[in-house]
Design a protein that fits this description.
- It is globular and about 50 Å long.
- The strands form two sheets. It has a seven-stranded mixed beta sheet, sandwiched between helices. Strands 1-2 form a two-stranded antiparallel sheet.
- The longest helix has 15 residues, at about 230-245.
- β1 and β2 (about 25-30) form a beta hairpin.
- By secondary structure, it is an alpha/beta fold.
- It contains eight helices and nine strands.
């Protein structure tokens, strides 16, 4: 749901989502906490898609890394229920909240889902290289990550590093938010340089169950895979190498300004 850039407040609310098997998934969130602290419609759309298509997707065999989980990832928690292994990731300052969300959602479950929180900051590629291995997870997942334009390139570089030829990226994104319209076409144009994209589902935001639905707004769920086209393979390699130029100094600058 985009890397956590909001401001924490004292009050919390709760959202619930009923699974197809009758179980209830619950998550707490901070109203008006900002991006990363509030669940957005794309997050609910992804959660419902995973629950509906769990057998078709063979989720019980999947190792998933979710990017930009935020403090209340309904989709990440849903993946935790259905998948073999799930890592919810975001910046260091939100890790405690992710851990709390996992503990709250899965309390009393037996067996306990194999779901954990881990630091992954899109703007610190140098650290990501030390903490993750390309292709370690067969699935990357992200919801409502196209929001702030300044995070567009860091996100793409993170995807290029984490993916190999066998990795599938499941991505859900709203076409609009209560006070902002993201430039979806700009991001799609960028990732088309490296990835093959297929549209899995499109649905209205209304009725998904979240607190931030926009009347007339839509959510699209897409699947991305690194292209096997030689020109795009070369372009992806060059883009990632260019992203690494600058080393620790560049990484420090990114941490400070993003």
């Amino acid at each position: 749901m985009g890397q956590a850039l909001g401001v924490k407040t004292q009050g919390t609310s709760m959202v619930s989502l009923q699974l197809k098997d009758g179980r209830l998934l619950q998550a707490r969130y901070i109203p008006d906490g900002g991006l990363g602290y509030t669940p957005w419609p794309g997050n609910f759309a992804m959660a419902r898609y995973l629950d509906t298509h769990k057998d078709e997707l063979k989720l019980s065999e999947r190792h998933v890394i979710e990017l930009g989980s935020g403090a209340c990832s309904v989709s990440g928690l849903m993946a935790g229920i259905h998948c073999k292994k799930v890592e919810l990731t975001d910046r260091l300052e939100v890790l405690e909240e992710i851990d709390a969300a996992i503990g709250f959602a899965f309390q009393g479950m037996s067996p306990m889902p194999n779901c954990s929180a881990k630091v992954l900051d899109w703007a610190d590629l140098e650290f990501t290289e030390t903490a993750f291995t390309p292709g370690k997870a067969d699935t990357l997942m992200m919801s409502d990550v196209v929001y702030f334009p300044m995070l567009k390139n860091p996100l793409v570089h993170t995807l290029l590093f984490l993916c190999n030829a066998n990795t599938e990226v499941l991505w859900a994104n709203c076409d609009r938010y209560p006070s902002y319209v993201p430039d979806m076409e700009d991001f799609l144009q960028l990732i088309r340089e490296f990835f093959d994209i297929s549209e899995l589902e499109e649905r209205p935001q209304q009725g998904l169950g979240g607190p931030n639905e926009v009347i007339g707004g839509r959510v699209c769920i897409r699947s991305l895979r690194l292209s096997s086209d030689p020109a795009k393979v070369a372009a992806a390699k060059e883009e990632l190498e260019m992203a690494k130029i600058g080393g620790p100094v560049e990484s420090c600058a990114k941490r400070c300004f993003f």
